[in-house]
Design goal:
Blueprint: H1 7-21, H2 30-43, H3 49-58, H4 60-70, H5 81-90, H6 92-95, E1 101-106, H7 112-123, E2 130-136, H8 139-147, E3 149-151, H9 155-164, E4 175-178, E5 181-184, E6 192-196, E7 208-213, H10 222-235, E8 236-244, E9 259-263, E10 268-271
Parallel strand pairs: 1-2, 1-7, 2-6, 7-8
Antiparallel strand pairs: 3-5, 4-5, 8-10, 9-10
GO molecular function: S-adenosylmethionine-dependent methyltransferase activity
Pfam families: CheR, CheR_N
Domain CheR-type methyltransferase: 1-272
């Protein structure tokens, strides 16, 4: 595709997607969405927004590929190790006071964060009484998360992250090498509920002691960020915890006074009212 996507064409495309499929991208950061749309069109030699609209409204399979393009799936295990180290040191002791711990990993992508938290909770003696709700808008990513198989070439980075995050054992004990892949121990996901969930349009579905949503809000505009923070606020129990990405904050949220900073650098908060 040559040239920029016009605002009218852009709005028309997103409105048509919302009306047919219920996916609302209108409050995502516009520059990011336009860049991803352009990449999608170039890869399939689609010449205009009107042509793209006709194709994805006619073919649900292509629309699923479009959602995959719109979704953020770049992640790694124990990404930003200091975040996990702070959870070990400042969050797990309070989580241990609950007979059942409900953890929501919102925007779980291909699952590296799920297994990272499962390993951490296992080492802290909390995994057996934790239910992890792993949700994402992208069904293909959810399938990859459920499979728990990742390229062996990433294991060196993942191992280093694990050690920096305060890992208490040998990271290789948690997976089995199989050909060029690492298959993570299925017991890590015994208490994981994998489910599609759209942060833009779906509602709260439980009460949680801990919600992690990292490097997702940064792709939303300010209005949508506030909406999602409200959703998290409504979903957390009093004294529950919220973990965001290092480029995200509660600064512009109307609910910021509902939270107390546990770690301002690692963006870990506790709900206080």
């Amino acid at each position: 595709m040559k040239g920029d996507i016009g605002n009218d064409d852009y709005r028309k495309l997103l409105d048509s997607i919302y009306h047919q499929y219920g996916y609302d991208f209108t409050e995502y950061a516009e520059s990011s969405v336009k860049r991803r749309i352009t990449h999608f069109m170039n890869g399939r030699r689609i010449g205009s927004c009107d042509e793209l609209q006709a194709v994805i409204l006619d073919d649900e399979g292509i629309f699923e590929e479009f959602v995959q393009e719109m979704s953020v799936t770049v992640t790694e295990m124990f990404r930003d190790p200091a975040f996990y180290k702070e959870i070990r040191e400042k969050v797990t002791a309070r989580l241990a006071t609950y007979p059942v711990i409900r953890l929501w990993i919102a925007g779980c992508a291909t699952g590296q964060e799920i297994y990272s938290m499962a390993i951490l909770l296992k080492e802290e003696g909390l995994l057996d009484r934790t239910i992890i709700y792993a949700t994402d808008i992208n069904q293909k990513s959810l399938m990859a998360a459920k499979e728990g198989m990742y390229s062996l070439e990433h294991m060196r980075v993942y191992t280093n992250n694990y050690q920096l995050a305060g890992g208490k054992g040998s990271f290789s004990d948690y997976y089995t090498a199989k050909y060029n892949a690492a298959l993570f121990d299925k017991t890590l996901r015994n208490n994981v509920v994998f489910s599609p969930h759209n942060l833009v349009t779906d509602q709260s579905f439980n009460e949680f002691q801990f919600i992690i949503c990292r490097n997702v809000l940064m792709y939303f505009n300010q209005q949508l960020q506030s909406k999602v923070i409200n959703l998290f606020d409504e979903s957390l129990c009093t004294f529950g915890f919220l973990g965001l990405g290092d480029k995200e904050s509660l600064l512009f949220s109307g609910r910021k006074d509902h939270f107390e900073k546990i770690d301002g650098i690692q963006k870990i908060y506790m709900k206080i009212k």
